[in-house]
């Protein structure tokens, strides 16, 4: 029995020695937790504000800017058609010029011309303005 009493005293002493290790300062941890929660709430509010601003800007874009862009695009349709037609015309002129050069070269070789017609015509279409001016001066 005395052995049991001594064990109980030893257990009580050991519990008293270890008790401070299990004490938690709840106020410091609560303050830190409150600070973290406050920071998280601020970030969530900022995110919500950003979403709302994006939503309103998107609405502005859809309601105002997109119709303006579409209207401007519609007004440029004639210009786009003209550009397309010019591209076709330039392609046709280039094709015709190539055919003409071949025909002139063939005619020159058959007639034995000393100065080629293509060497006179070619600079008008494929040379810079400076070279063209030099050619016209001569």
From TrEMBL:
Keywords annotated in UniProt: Coiled coil
Coiled-coil annotated spans: 83-110
Gene Ontology CC, one term: BLOC-1 complex
Keyword hit for Coiled coil: yes
Domain of life: Eukaryota
Keyword Coiled coil: yes
Stored InterPro entries: Cappuccino (IPR024857)
Protein name (record): Biogenesis of lysosome-related organelles complex 1 subunit 4
């Amino acid at each position: 029995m005395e052995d049991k009493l001594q064990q109980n005293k030893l257990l009580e002493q050991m519990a008293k020695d270890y008790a401070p290790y299990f004490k938690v300062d709840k106020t410091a941890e609560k303050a830190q937790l409150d600070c973290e929660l406050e920071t998280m709430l601020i970030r969530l509010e900022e995110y919500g504000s950003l979403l709302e601003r994006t939503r309103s800007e998107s609405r502005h874009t859809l309601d105002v800017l997109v119709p303006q862009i579409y209207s401007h695009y519609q007004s440029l349709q004639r210009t786009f058609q003209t550009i397309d037609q010019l591209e076709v015309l330039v392609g046709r002129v280039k094709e015709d010029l190539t055919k003409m050069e071949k025909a002139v070269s063939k005619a020159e070789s058959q007639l034995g011309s000393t100065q080629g017609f293509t060497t006179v015509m070619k600079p008008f279409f494929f040379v810079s303005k400076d070279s063209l001016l030099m050619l016209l001066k001569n």
